[in-house]
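Supplementary Methods. Inverse-folding protocol.

Structures were first reduced to a discrete structure-token string of length 208. This string, shown here, constituted the complete conditioning input.
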């Protein structure tokens, strides 16, 4: 009646305790878990499963995952829906991970290469030439263009990226808001409010 749990009942139920560590303490399970979630999405939609490339897995491995396995599941489903090819790259998932919890990276328009944060004996970012994975030479690296390395790169606003991803996901699900909200990991009401605001500002089609 007072909201407390009876001690004798606790010991009666506590037969085989199971301790499940959080995802950030078992990052080695991340590739298997992500493959499982991507396969489940593929089976539901009747197509071949997609996969994360090595750079994407490295970024995910350095993320803290405050939302635990459920957050990973949402990321996998969202990436599977929004990726046109069979391989999910790091640049697809990085906008969904809070900046404070993602590793430092060298950036070009299409690829990300993980660079260690400075530490004892590790040079700072200012003395390290950023690298990106070359599409023409798998497994090799090439310098980022100097205009990007010198800070001239202009990232796109997250609001624009969010809006485009939501619209793209809506189209993928033929306008079904429940499926769209589930794939993006947001509530249906939140999705509706965003669409209403964008329509009022003439940022999306009125028929969407």
């Amino acid at each position: 009646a007072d909201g407390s749990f009876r001690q004798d009942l606790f010991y009666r139920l506590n037969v085989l305790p199971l301790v499940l560590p959080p995802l950030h303490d078992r990052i080695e399970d991340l590739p298997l878990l992500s493959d499982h979630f991507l396969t489940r999405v593929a089976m539901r939609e009747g197509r071949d499963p997609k996969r994360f490339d090595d750079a994407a897995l490295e970024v995910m491995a350095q993320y803290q995952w405050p939302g635990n396995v459920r957050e990973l599941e949402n990321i996998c489903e969202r990436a599977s829906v929004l990726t046109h090819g069979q391989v999910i790259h790091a640049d697809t998932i990085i906008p969904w991970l809070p900046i404070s919890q993602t590793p430092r990276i060298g950036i070009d328009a299409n690829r990300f290469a993980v660079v260690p944060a400075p530490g004892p004996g590790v040079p700072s970012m200012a003395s390290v030439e950023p690298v990106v994975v070359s599409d023409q030479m798998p497994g090799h690296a090439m310098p980022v263009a100097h205009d990007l390395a010198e800070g001239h790169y202009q990232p796109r606003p997250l609001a624009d990226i969010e809006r485009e991803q939501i619209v793209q996901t809506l189209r993928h699900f033929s306008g079904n808001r429940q499926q769209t909200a589930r794939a993006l990991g947001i509530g249906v009401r939140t999705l509706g409010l965003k669409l209403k605001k964008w329509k009022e500002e003439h940022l999306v089609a009125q028929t969407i």
